[in-house]
Amino acid sequence: MPVTVDKLKLLSLPAAILAASFLCVSSGIAAEVAPPQRYVDSGRIVFCSDFSYPPWVYVDPQTTKYVGVEVDFSDALAALMGVKAEHKNIQFDGLIPAIQAGQCDAIISTLIDKPARREVLDFVDYALVGNVVIVPFASDIFVQDLTGLSGKKVVVQTGSQLEQDLVSASDKLKGDGKPGITVVAIPNNTDAMQQLFAGLVDAYYAVPEQASYLNSQRPNSVKLGSPTLGARPVGIATAKKDHDLYEAIAAAFKVYQANGGYDALFTKAGLQSLEVPH
Question: In this structure, are strands 153-157 and 203-206 parallel, antiparallel, or unpaired?
């Protein structure tokens, strides 16, 4: 089941999870929240992400290191559990198969918390993320909803909820006897951005933070071609079999909110409006 802040309320978690400020694990980091023993023994939690989604997770072009809000966030939660966060780069549509195959312990990659995914994953929700149509700066496209993209070519990340949204809107248009949307699904967002910059598509369907990031890299290169279209929770996902890890992450998030770290991180990134209530 998903966990949002208003549901946490200390959750009736095992006392060993909440009362672990004394714990010191093999990594040498003092823990405020006790993770399951297998993570104490290994000294790490492995997080899978698709590192093509700035500012959330991406590869720094100067250092080639993994960076982003979700990297800092998962590092902070791991530290509260007295272990290290290890990061693994997995293509978005391979994230859930990767966790099911045991390649990682948790997913943090702006993964939308939705019923179909809850059948195999538990979620600790940490942000409410809306979506927007992003267009070249000189474009005259501005739509109020996705059906306004009738006859347009739109790039989106493969396997995402956003791809499903575009396909649904296109099907509706066709059912109404109107031209559909040509949906160009690309495995990672870095390549999707390049499709937009190269003029191969009319628009890019993503999150508004990406428009800000693109303009920080290439001033006045893009703009919003729609209002924010809906807001969905995104969360850290763990496999159902690892419910004890889910509980530990939920408890660590509660501590991170209480100590001000969560507010500080999202405010620094300009994402404070996306915080879950707490």
Answer: parallel
96-143 tens-digit pLDDT: 999 999 999 999 999 999 999 999 999 999 999 999 999 999 999 999
pLDDT at 209: 86
Query: Are 245 and 197 found together in one domain?
Result: no
Yes or no: say if 76 and 172 are a contact pair by the CB < 8 Å rule.
no
Tell me the pTM: 0.80
Q: Mark the ranges of the chain whose per-residue pLDDT is less than 50.
A: 1-28
Q: What pLDDT is attached to residue 154?
A: 99
- What pLDDT sits at residue 21? 37
Task: Indicate if 123 and 37 belong to the same structural domain.
Answer: yes
3-state secondary structure the chain: CEECHHHHCCCCCCHHHHCCCCCECCCCCECCCCCCHHHHHHCEEEEEECCEECCCEEECCCCCCEECHHHHHHHHHHHHCCCEEEEEECCHHHHHHHHHCCCCCEECCCCECCHHHHCCEEEEEEEEEEEEEEEECCCCCCCCCHHHHCCCEEEEECCCHHHHHHHHHHHHHHHCCCCCCEEEEECCHHHHHHHHHCCCCCEEEECHHHHHHHHHHCCCCEEECCCCEEEEEEEEEEEHHHHHHHHHHHHHHHHHHHCCHHHHHHHHCCCHHHECCC
**pLDDT for position 276:** 94
Residues 218 and 249 reside in one and the same domain: no
Polymer length of the chain: 278
Q: CA Rg, the chain, in Å?
A: 20
CATH code for the domain in which residue 27 is found: 3.40.190.10
The whole domain housing 205 covers 130-230
Count of beta carbons in the 10 Å neighbourhood of residue 7: 11
